[in-house]
Amino acid sequence: MNKTVVSLAGAALLLVACSRPAPPEEPVRAVKVITVGTSAYAPSREYAGEVRAQVESRLGFRIGGKLVKRQAELGQQVRAGQVLAQLDPQDYRLAAEAARAQVAAAATNRNLAAADFKRYQALKDQNFISGAELERREATLKAAQAQLEQAQSQSAVQGNQTGYAVLTADVSGVVTAVEAEPGQVVAPGATVVRIAADGVRDVVFSVPEDRVAGIKTGAPVRIRVWAQGTELLGAVREVAASSDPVTRTYPVKVSIEGKAPPLGATVYAILDSGAATGTPVIKLPTSALRQEGNATAVWVLDKSSMTVRSQVVQVATADGNEIVVGAGLTPGMLVVSAGVHVLSPGQKVTIYESKLPSAQAGRVQAAPDSIAKPVLAAPAASASGAK
After folding, report:
1. pTM: predicted TM-score of the whole model, two decimal places
2. Residue 66 to residue 186: CA distance in whole angstroms
3. What is the full DSSP assignment across 170-206?
4. 343 and 298 in contact (C-beta within 8 Å)?
């Protein structure tokens, strides 16, 4: 009898050991939810831009030659009339000296012709020569005078070219680019230095072809400075009449009111689209969205059963880090805003609540100091317990 009981008990234990364990129950996840409501929506478009000078000069020599010295450096503040670069002036000095020599020779010829004309005029008064001979001497004098004036003009041109070997700033501003180095042979008119003139600054950005028609000159623009987080006001000053040949976009210039950010700073230009502002719409954070096939959906919480169900929504547009819902939700619904990719239809959830009260959140950093003393006191307590 005992053997039979033992055999049955062993068989029962063997069956229990070989049976499949029950699948673990799906954990109840804590989720963050938001209550769907309406908020005012002012449609606007935002473009990334750059701060530039309203006037930027590309300075170059009016003559060609070898660059022997460059005083301007990138980012340097310069004033009007300051020397920026110099060419080798030796050839132009020699040409100026040659022109001055031609002036001297022409002046000598003119003086000789004038003396001849005066002498022949006296002879004509005494009827020793004919009037035709006097007219020839007068023509010779006029030709010599013209040659002198021509030589003087050429000498002035050569003198100017000698002065053109020195490049000076025509406005006060900041050097934004240097495009030539000492030793380089530059052609006439080639850009050597670029200067952003002091004064009004512009924000320059580009818009695609389908948006450029909605931007009008004089339209107000809000300028958000990326590095500072501040906003400035501006107005559209210029809209390009033709697109950029490379990007096929249209540059737009906005003049800034007040103190402008530094040159080259990254900013964002925000333009109202012209539609009615203040329209009540439903907005959701982008973290609440998920892809369900070809549709966009969110998880809606049923508070009576504390389960989630999938709800397809229609996205109308984006507004910063939020999306505007066109259809699919009504005010008052509870939508899961975080952790949407780990949920499944009908799954039970709980609403996440912070364990620390808001008043204690600011004192979390002091926690390591407060627990230092109990840790140090622990050995004493254990020692007393050992006694």
Report:
1. 0.54
2. 6
3. SS-EEEEEE---TT-EE-TT-EEEEEEESS-EEEEEE
4. no
CATH class for the domain made up of 30-38+278-351: mainly beta
> What's the Cα-to-Cα distance from 375 to each of 298, 364, 367, 369, rounded to whole Å?
47, 18, 13, 11
> What φ, ψ does residue 308 adopt, rounded to 5°?
-110, 150
Handedness of CA 318, 324, 328, 333 (dihedral sign): positive
Structure-token pair, residue 196 = 């952003």
Q: What is the pLDDT of residues 121-169, one digit of tens each?
A: 888 888 888 888 888 988 999 999 999 999 999 999 988 888 899 999 9
Contact 283, 41 (CB under 8 A): yes
**Phi (first) and psi of residue 92, to 5 degrees:** -75, -30
Q: How many CB atoms lie within 10 A of CB 122?
A: 11
State the amino acid at position 302 in one-letter form: D
CB atoms within 10 A of CB 53: 21
Q: Which residues contact 343 (CB under 8 A, 6 or more apart)?
A: 29, 31, 299, 308, 336, 349
Report in angstroms the alpha-carbon separations of 166 from 59, 62, 69, 156, 172.
Answer: 12, 10, 10, 17, 17
C-beta of residue 201 within 8 angstroms of C-beta of residue 54: yes
Residue 308, Cβ neighbours under 10 Å: how many?
25
Q: How far apart are CA 67 and CA 59, in angstroms?
A: 14
Domain regions of the chain by residue span: 30-38+278-351, 47-55+199-272, 90-163
Cβ-count burial 259-271 (b if 16+ within 10 Å, e if not): ebbebebebbbbb
Tens-place pLDDT, residues 55-106: 899 999 999 999 999 999 998 999 999 999 999 999 989 999 999 999 999 9
The CATH number that domain 47-55+199-272 falls under is 2.40.30.170
Tokens 């504390």 locate to 306
Q: Which residues contact 42 (CB under 8 A, 6 or more apart)?
A: 272, 277, 278
- Looking at CATH, the fold of the domain delimited by 90-163 is given as Helix Hairpins (1.10.287)
Give dist(CA 312, CA 81) in Å, integer.
68
